Amino acid sequence: MIIYDKLFIGGEWVKPSSAELLDIRSPHDQSLVGRAVQATSADVDKAVAAARNAFDHGPWPLTTPQARQDLVARFNELHAARAAEAARLISAERGAPIWFTSYLQTALADQTDAYLRAAAAFGWEEALDPSGVAKGLVRREPIGVVAAVIPWNAPHQSALTKLVPALLAGNTVILKASPENSLSVFMLAEIIAEAGFPEGVVSIMPADRETSEYLVAHPDVDKISFTGSTAAGRRIAAIAGEQLKRVSLELGGKSATIILEDADLSAVTDGIKFASFANNAENCQAHTRVLAPRGRYEEVVAALKVTVENLVVGDPADATTFVGPMVRADQQRRVRSYIELGVAEGARLVTGGADVPEGLEGGNYVKPTLFADVDNHMRIAQEEIFGPVLVVIPYEDEEDAIRIANDSPYGLGGGVWTADTDHGVDIARRIRTGFFMVNAAPVSFEGPFGGYKASGIGREFGSAGLSEYVEHKTINI
Known about the structure:
Layout (H helix, E strand, L loop, with lengths): L1 E3 L2 E3 L2 E3 L6 E5 L6 E6 L3 H17 L7 H17 L1 H12 L3 H24 L3 E3 L8 E7 L2 E5 L5 H14 L3 E6 L4 H14 L6 E5 L2 H8 L6 E5 L2 H14 L2 E5 L4 E5 L5 H13 L9 E7 L3 H13 L19 H17 L2 E4 L17 E4 L6 H4 L6 E7 L2 H9 L3 E2 L2 E4 L3 H9 L7 E2 L13 E2 L2 E2 L4 H6 L2 E7 L1
Parallel strand pairs: 1-5, 8-9, 8-11, 9-10, 11-12, 13-14, 13-19, 14-17, 16-17, 19-20
Antiparallel strand pairs: 2-3, 4-5, 6-7, 7-23, 12-22, 15-16, 18-21
């Protein structure tokens, strides 16, 4: 069993204000995975004070961009060396299947490398156009103390999406994680410590929502970077607005995937398996609305029924498992309530249902569920469920499909399936989302990621992601 009885504040392991340990239990069978301390507002004060002092008086923000890149690169090597260990721990504490955590933890080295390439090419200080009348410099400088608040569904990925660009830009960071991820984020703290960041630059702590709000409202925090629910994002945006803090928000989604008449249905079902159900479908960019043409509607429903029924549900540590348990019992109840709602709304339950899978009653399991005959105005088509529930919506023609895809409060992701890639790109240009896939094209960490509408503010990855952590200064000479 793993026990963490200290917090990581300013690069050091320190005694917390409360010695009480939280039990971290497996969502699979409720067995005890480990115990860990949780931060309180008093611990936040210590972390913010350390970060403030390191930014205002320490060497980190004055360090050259190259020196910061070198240290982040060292961290990346150390983190990659523990990828398999981290994957097993994340699967154990939050229920994500080992195939997914192993894939994601390995991919994080590429994610950080992409940030490093962006930093190497970034215009940290550039001359204004010398042919103009005015001469001077444009500088990109660190913002200050960053509060990075991450969710439980992909802890290391979410953490590095914020930590890496913030540190490359010269900021100091307090990373606040969900209690469910206490063990894996403390592992991340071990790697940060080994990398050797200067005193005060990084603090990592799990804490509850009340403590999280205390952190984002702290007067000595200059920037808030948040990933999580849209409801929480609205609250954080309100706090940031009151205090005129910089803020970036990566929030929820209800992504639509459009199947065109000429699509290869076997490729579609293979792709939707991953796009819709990866990470237990506890994934903000999951393709949870499938838009199918009337002429092929029942063919699509029948093919998806086979796909959903063939998903292996069970122990996340088993390499054959595709869908594991929901992270908590309340999340399990929430997803099951949406399945019941779908039936009540009049949707056709094709497969799955609200009952717990047989033999898995001891865990937070939900049957992967497929609904057909769904109207886009139903709540199961409009609200983010954050679980393995897929709805199939018919459309009349491509204009109708585009209309339905855009008829959502969210605008994070989506996709299109077609034999004509150029035509797929034309469709993509008309969908109001920040991220879109043509025929399940692989994700690039070079391009910006983020959402329109209620899916957030700001972007991650690449130079756009770095820009979220700098202030722009013009020096006229």
